[in-house]
């Protein structure tokens, strides 16, 4: 695979840093590497393969010579600078919500719909972290028998709100331990020793933005525009990795044993399902792992076509950085095959 010149937009943020680590971890063939961020980060250095790389200013003419540009600086920045990256000849992998529901932009989890990459127009959208983890976990079952309905309750870590939110959780734990007043600026409520409905605006349909993203994005990736999905998204005092309690109504019965075997063979999934030891997916163990952990696979006793499972996945990896690098790997394969 030939080397690609890479730009990382939002390089000093939580996802940007993880993109660099995953590129190293995967030994992705990086030619020239350009780290881009806002003025306050210009001049900082980040290590890549043991060498310091200076952070440069994000501006429209910064993408000359770039083959792949990873964007992870929010929807506003993406809308402003993605056109410049495309004009410079780069393929953009965007981690924001800016283009996810654009009908001309593929929304991709490689284990689910890598084939959609063949029709990109210069931009590929990375899904919402919750949707990416959920899609990876349930797609093999959908392929096997079809899913009629998804009910999911999520337990979303501070990492989903970025590096500042992770620091706020840590600071609140220290404040609590030291008997100090607990303060918050990132989240609307105290996150330490608490949980609350996901901190996004509630829409007219009664679902918050995160829940609506799960519904819309799952339908798009599964090419199932009418798939019934009932999400409840909750923020919990976990530093890293999201968890999800999933109930599926299937088109035909599937035993837990059958589901376990299907999932065991599926890419991107690690089975963690040991009832004897009461050992099931946990965010602590999923943190740092590229795979999505799936377990507690059991029958829905109220529905002969029902199946329940519990999922944990690293929001910064499969939910963001790793999925983005996977997309780049798939793009590189396509280029090689075409060549």
Write a brief structural summary.
It contains 9 helices and 14 strands.
Question: Would you give an account of this structure?
Answer:
With 339 residues, this protein is of the alpha/beta class. 33% of the residues lie in helices and 24% in strands. The chain contains nine helices and 14 strands. The strands form two sheets. It has a seven-stranded mixed beta sheet with strand order 3-4-2-1-5-6-7, sandwiched between helices. Strands 9-10-8-11-14-13-12 form a seven-stranded mixed beta sheet. Helix 1 crosses helix 9, helix 4 (129-145) packs parallel to helix 6 (209-222) and helix 4 (129-145) crosses helix 9. The longest helix has 22 residues, at 317-338. It is globular and about 60 Å long. The N and C termini lie close together (11 Å).
Strand content: 15-25%
Q: What is the typical, i.e. mean, pLDDT? A: 96
Please give the order of strands in the largest beta sheet: 3-4-2-1-5-6-7
SS-based class: alpha/beta
Q: In terms of topology, how is this protein built?
A:
Elements: E1 4-9, H1 14-25, E2 30-37, E3 45-48, E4 51-57, E5 68-71, H2 75-87, E6 91-94, H3 110-113, E7 123-125, H4 129-145, E8 147-156, H5 163-177, E9 196-197, H6 209-222, E10 229-235, E11 242-250, H7 256-265, E12 269-271, H8 283-286, E13 292-299, E14 306-313, H9 317-338
Parallel strand pairs: 1-2, 1-5, 2-4, 5-6, 6-7, 8-10, 12-13
Antiparallel strand pairs: 3-4, 8-11, 9-10, 11-14, 13-14
Helix pairs in contact: 1-9, 4-6, 4-9
